[in-house]
Amino acid sequence: MNDTDSYNNSKLSSIRLNNENESKDDEGLSIGGEEEKNFKRSHKRNQSNDIGIHYVDDDDGVEFQLDQRYLNKVHEELEKLNIATDVINKLEVQLDEARKQFRLTQQKWSQKLDELSKKYGSVISKSRPYYEAKLQERTLREEAQNAAIRFERANTLLAVAKEQVKFTQESLSRQKVAEPACLEVLNHHIQRIAEAEKERTSAENCHKEISIKMTEMSQKIKQMERDHNRAIKKSRYYFEQRMEFTKILEGQKNLINKLEKEVKQKKADYTSSLKNLERISESIHEERSLSSIKRSSRATSPVSSSPSTNRNDYDSSKNYDFNSFTNDCMSEAYASESSGIPPDPSELAINEDDLDSIDGGSSFNGDNGVILLAQQLIGEEEKEKSSNNVGYKFRPEQTDIRYTTMPEGIRPLPSSSGYGSDASLSSFDDTVELSKMLRSHSQLIHDIDNGAIRLKNILHQRSVSDVQNESVC
C-alpha cells in the first residue's frame, strides 16, 4: 500500500509539473505571438522586395501592394532623373570651364594686342580703314554668294513649275469635259510659277545691288593701297593677330551658347520627370483610398445583412415547428383510428391557445400549416364516409362539415359580393385556392376545431357500432 501511494503521489506531482510547464509555454507563446507576427511581416516584405513586389503601409495600418506598372513607371522616371542629374552636372562643369577659358583667352589676347598696338603706334591708325574695308568686302562677297544661290533655286523651281503647267494643259486638252480637279491642279502650278518668278526677280535684284557695292568697295580698297602702302605692310601682323583672336573668341562663345542650351534642355527633362513622379504618387494615393473604402464597405456589409438572415432563419424554424406539430396531431388521429380504440377528446382536440402560441411570430408561415391540416381532416372524413358500409344516417347539421367563411349568425357585408352564399360554398370543392384567399386566420382555426369534434364523434360512433356487430356475431 505504501508503495502504491508513493507511486501515485509521484505520478500526480509529475502531472502537476507538466501542466505548469504547459501553462508557461502557453504564456510564452501568447507573449511572443505579436513578435512572431512582426517577424513574419518583415520576412514577407524582405522576400517581396527580393522578388520585385513592394508593400506600403496604408493610412489605417493595412499593407497595400503596389501595382507592377506603377513600379515600372517609377523606376523609369527615377532612371531619367539620375541620368538628367549626371548630365546636368557634367554640362555645368563644362560650361564653367568654357566660360573660364573664354575669360582667360580674352585677357591673354587683349594684353598681346595692346603690346602690338604700342609697338606700331600710328601705323595701325593709318592702315585701319583699309582692313575694315577688306572685312566689309568679305561680308559683301558672302551676301552675293547667298543671293546667287537664291537666284539659282528660284530659277529651278520656275522651270519645274512651267513643265508641270505644260503637262496639265496637255491632259486638259485630251479631256472632252474639263474636270474640276485638273483645273485646280493647273491653278496651283500657275501660282507656283508666279511665286518662283517673284523669288528669282528678288534674288536677281539683290545680287545686282551687292555687286555694285562690291565694285565700289574694291575701288576704294585699291585707292587705299596706293595711298598707305607702307603702313599697311607694317601693320599687317597686328591685324592678322586681331583676326585670329576674333575667330577664337567667336568659337568659344558658340561653345558656351551650345552648353547653355543643353543645360536648359536637361533641366526641362528633370522637371518633367519630377512632375511625372508626382502624378504617379497621386494615382497610388487614389488607389489606396479606394482600397480602404472597399475594405470598410466589406467590413460593414455582413452587419447590415445579418438582421434579414436571422429573420429568415427564425421564420423557417417556426414554420418547421408548426408543420411538425400538425403532422404529430394527424399521426395520432390515424393511429387511434387504425387500432379501433376511441380517441381521447383531449388528445384529438386542437386548442386555439396552442395554435396561437405556435403561430405567434409569423402568421404567413402558419397559414400554410392550418390549411394543410384542414385539407387532411376533410380528406380523411370523406374517406370514412365512402368506406363506411354501415347504413347509419346522420342529421344534416352533423354531416355538414363544409367550411364557412364567416361565423354563423353574422351576415356578409354588401360589398363582399356573395361571400356567404351557397354558390361560394359549392365552389370550394372545385377551387381550393379561392377558399385560401377568402378565409382568415381565426375563422380557419374555428372551423378546424368544429371539424375535429365532428370527426371525433364519427370515429366514436363507428367504434361502438363495430363492438355491437361483434357481439351480435
From TrEMBL:
Q: What is this protein called?
A: SH3 domain-binding protein 5-like
Pfam families named among the record's database cross-references: SH3BP5
Q: Which GO terms describe its biological process?
A: intracellular signal transduction
Keyword Zinc on this protein? no
**Entry coiled-coil feature ranges:** 81-108, 186-280
Q: Where is the composition biased (Low complexity)?
A: 290-309
Q: Which GO terms describe its molecular function?
A: protein kinase inhibitor activity
Q: Which InterPro entries match?
A: SH3BP5 (IPR007940)
What Gene Ontology cellular-component terms does the record carry?
cytoplasm
**Biased-composition ranges for Polar residues?**
1-20
Q: Which UniProt keywords apply?
A: Coiled coil
What family is this protein classified in?
Belongs to the SH3BP5 family.
| Annotated spans, Disordered | 1-45, 285-318
Q: Give yes or no: UniProt keyword Phosphoprotein.
A: no
